[in-house]
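Suppose you are handed only these lines of text.
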Amino acid sequence: MMPRERTERLHIGCHLSSAKGFLHMGEEAHAIGADTFAFFTRNPRGGNAKPLDAVDAEALRDYMKRHHFAPIVAHAPYTLNLCSDREEIRDFARRTMADDLRRMLYLPGNYYNFHPGSHVKQGAETGIRLIAESLRELLSGLPEGGAPPPVTILLETMAGKGSEVGRSFEEIAEILDRAGADSRLGVCLDTCHVYDAGYDIAGDLDGVLREFDRVIGIGRLKALHVNDSRNPMGSRKDRHEKIGEGSLGLETFISIVRHPLLRHLPMILETPNELDGYRKEIQLLRECAGEEAEGAERSGF
Ligand code: FE
Ligand code: FE
Ligand code: ZN
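From them, the structure of the protein bound to fe (iii) ion can be written out as follows.
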């Protein structure tokens, strides 16, 4: 009998509600075939977080270990703005993120992803400087890096709607540089956002990844948001679509889940779906990655 070709399992999950606590999210993820997930650290509008339940956090840690989860990707409230033109808004964002990051230390080794911000007519250069200053301050309040660091902060690549900062790899790279190129910083690439920002991941995925490597360094890429887009390349709209039903198309996602530079990364679905829709998309992408061979003999060709 020929030895079965072993490919590492795809690490994939979706955005889940945190309403029923940490362990519940782990169980819900596992039940739909996921081995990672995302959640909002608090109300997306940025209000108060529930008091942290350390016992529940430890239960999730154990559960993730038992079920071989990849790192999870917590998401900051998307209304926070580290580069607002108003000091009280920047300060609120900084304090909220500092509190979120302290909480993440109860789930060590995972990721905390945030939207860099909107410069509101101050210009991208000012936005970049403000974001980098805040990141330096946040990092100074965190334990030093290890391997993996207790928490890694991920900047999300943005579509570029309004005055969003982070629409180009250059902007992300400049924030990282000015924040001290710290090993506790990384990037979460959102497939819908980069396409909307004008990067042709449908026509030339390899070329875009080469560009990412040249400008940012591929080692900074820690996670993916896997979303199709409702709009054409360069539209700067940021409207997510179900996998295979948008302008990126299923072929693009087949290339992504099979790509040697991407397939080991945690992939988070943020598509317009309920839980059962996510379960189907996870199954679809696992099949696209060649996982239907699991437990079956692969025919040689
Ligand atoms: Fe996001
Ligand atoms: Fe996203
Ligand atoms: Zn989006």
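What can we learn from it? Residues 12-291 form a domain with the TIM Barrel fold (CATH 3.20.20.150). Residues 118 and 164 are 4 Å apart (CA to CA).
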